[in-house]
Design a protein that fits this description.
This protein is of the alpha/beta class. It contains 19 helices and 27 strands. The strands form 6 sheets. The protein has a 6-stranded mixed β-sheet. A hairpin with a 6-residue loop joins strand 25 and strand 26. Helix 2 packs across helix 9. The model has no long low-confidence stretch (mean pLDDT 86).
Length: 623
């Protein structure tokens, strides 16, 4: 007797795993018919273990184990998918059901449920050739040419290609770049595809005897296609490959495991992939031609104005010469950080004690006023707020955001040709696209924005980094690679040049950028990480637990005693919302690469024993 864990394939059932018993062992990927309530549904077997090994599970279960009614057949493609899901679950500590739900669209199972299973169970052969994994670091035009060559080679070998991008916008852009001449053999799948289009796409994928180029977001990656021979994953560095649920599943891990299990070649691409990927694939050395050839370093004097005088002079010059400029800032709002000029106390949220952002707000009568807002809990303070420590009214901005930058530029050239794009002011994609078209129609324009604008940016002559020193001072693991990626992307998208304004032109990374020593930047960063035991040479684990205020100290002591022999740091606790009696506790643990594999089950058991909501992240983007 055996106990089988399955993923249900049926409309209206929560996407999770179910457990049944069967007389014989079943391979992963087997399709079965099982009872669920008063109906019979189809499911995919994830694993099957002897009854003797599942006695504890059965005794503690709050339900009666039911028998699998019928074995419908085995789908080799799903077997490879299940193996990849299990490997991802081991590496990320996320539940198998949650991973499957993030990579297999529910409508696929609804479609399969309505089709003849004999068609679904069509033969799928696994290549005997060992798969290759590679990464391409190049400009946009070079990556386009490289992908076209890969696709032509795959089609010549009668193999289909999956092209993965983290966002719908990026996916549609890449489709437009690669579809010329093969429009009839292209399929695109994402969360905004209508059910009618999905059904047509699934039918084409199932029945077409010609190789296809299938564009998918990560949530549609595990779509069965018998002749799949190549996967291209673009924007390898994007944090949007991680799911937005409490498990923060990195779908890049599953993509890699699936290609390995199914013997499918995998190519990552980006203007600057994550350094850990470059190190893992031994691709740290960039081609000599891959340099920011339009980059200029501009030393600036210490300034007390919002913009350095050198930047203001260049904006005025651009207005005369009719250039379009992009001014990059990594912060939103008027001032992301403000402090008392007399005692140095930071303006923090009275609820969760995080720094508050000064922003412009529009009143009901249309007038504009400023207020401090907590971006975590939403609490607000008047702009006339006095220092909580010394009572001084002399509150000054420390960091500059998009809104204050706009105000300064408008004072120089007026507001007709100044455009601001960030998540707060332009959250809608169509609004951004409309603004970009308006910008392109003007001879002179100044675009002020965050990274949100980069995928849309076109027709820009110069990119300016007014506060590059502040970008390098961001306390994050990926600060150096993020800065380098920004420079390379802007160098690619700016027709005339990229200007970095800095008070420290002799700073090592700035000198390396000026002399175009990209390989030295990557090598120095990886050497530093190796010395400190940071990824890719070590593992950082972020543990977050939400607990009632009364349990804060007990939980804190319990968790820290468990990790007492490890390198652990506790971040300041904060309330989850105004007036809430719950607080968020966060720890960062530095350990070896094999820790999750060796101790993952124990770590999960520890978190489950707390009986409070928790989240485990590996190598988090932010602390």
């Amino acid at each position: 007797m055996y106990v089988a864990t399955i993923i249900p394939i049926a409309r209206g059932i929560p996407f999770d795993v179910l457990t049944y018993y069967c007389p014989d062992t079943l391979a992963a990927g087997t399709l079965v018919s099982v009872p669920f309530g008063k109906q019979l549904i189809v499911g995919v077997v994830v694993e099957c273990i002897p009854l003797a090994e599942a006695k504890t599970l059965i005794k503690s279960a709050a339900f009666t184990l039911k028998k699998i009614r019928q074995v419908l057949g085995h789908l080799a493609y799903f077997e490879q998918a299940v193996l990849a899901i299990q490997a991802t679950a081991t590496q990320t500590l996320a539940p198998v059901g949650a991973i499957a739900a993030s990579m297999m669209p529910q409508f696929l199972f609804e479609y399969m449920h309505g089709e003849k299973l004999t068609d679904v169970l069509a033969a799928h052969s696994i290549s005997s050739t060992a798969p290759t994994e590679s990464v391409i670091t190049a400009t946009l035009s070079d990556r386009i040419d490289h992908y076209k060559r890969l696709i032509r080679s795959a089609f010549a070998a009668k193999q289909s290609v999956f092209f993965v991008a983290p966002t719908i916008r990026s996916l549609e852009q890449w489709k437009a770049r690669l579809e010329k001449g093969i429009q009839k053999h292209i399929v695109i799948l994402h969360s905004k595809t209508t059910k009618k289009s999905l059904r047509s796409a699934f039918s084409l994928i199932k029945t077409s005897d010609r190789p296809l180029l299938v564009f998918v977001t990560p949530g549609y990656f595990l779509i069965p296609r018998a002749d799949l021979g190549l996967v291209i994953a673009e924007q390898e560095s994007s944090n949007l490959y991680k799911t937005s649920d409490r498990f923060s599943i990195d779908t890049r891990i599953l993509i890699r495991h699936f290609c390995d299990c199914a013997h499918i070649d995998l190519t990552w691409g980006d203007s600057m992939p994550r350094f850990e990927t470059l190190a893992r694939l031994h691709s740290e050395h960039m081609p000599r031609s891959y340099v920011p050839d339009k980059l200029h370093i501009v030393p600036v004097e210490h300034y007390r104005t919002v913009l350095p005088s050198e930047v203001m002079d260049l904006v005025r010059h651009a207005e005369k010469k009719k250039y379009r400029l992009f001014l990059y800032t990594n912060r939103k709002g008027v001032a992301p950080l403000s402090r008392c000029a007399d005692c140095g106390t930071i303006v923090t949220c009275p609820t969760c004690e995080l720094p508050m952002v000064l922003r412009n707000k529009i009143a009901q009568d249309g007038s504009t006023y400023r207020t401090f807002i907590c971006t975590h809990c939403g609490d607000m303070l008047d702009a006339t707020h006095h220092c909580t420590y010394c009572g001084s009214w002399n509150i000054t901005p420390v960091a500059i955001g998009t809104e204050s930058l706009r105000d300064e530029v408008v004072s120089l050239v007026g507001d007709t040709n100044v455009f601001t794009i960030d998540d707060d002011l332009t959250p809608d994609t169509k609004e951004v696209e409309t603004l970009i078209k308006d910008i392109q129609s003007k001879k002179f324009a100044v675009v002020i924005g965050t990274t949100k604008v980069l995928p849309y940016l076109r027709g820009i002559h110069y990119t300016l980094f007014p506060y590059f020193d502040r970008l390098l001072s961001t306390p994050a693991l990926s600060t150096t690679e993020t800065a380098l990626r920004l420079v390379m992307e802007c160098n690619d998208q700016s027709s005339e040049g990229v200007l970095i304004f800095t008070r420290n032109p002799s700073f090592p990374i700035i000198k390396q950028l000026e002399t175009q020593k990209i390989n030295a930047i990557i090598g120095d960063e990886l050497a530093t990480r190796k010395e400190l035991g940071y990824p890719p040479y070590g593992l950082l684990i972020k543990i977050s637990v939400t607990v009632p205020e009364g349990h804060r100290h007990k939980v804190k002591e319990y968790v820290e005693s468990y990790f007492k022999d490890m390198d652990i740091s506790a971040l300041p606790a904060r309330r989850i919302s105004p007036g809430s009696m719950k607080v968020l506790l966060v720890w960062i643990i530095k350990t070896n690469l094999s820790y999750i594999e060796d101790n993952g089950a124990d770590l999960t058991a520890l978190m489950e024993s707390l009986r409070f909501p928790y989240k485990i992240e590996q190598n988090p983007e932010r602390f």
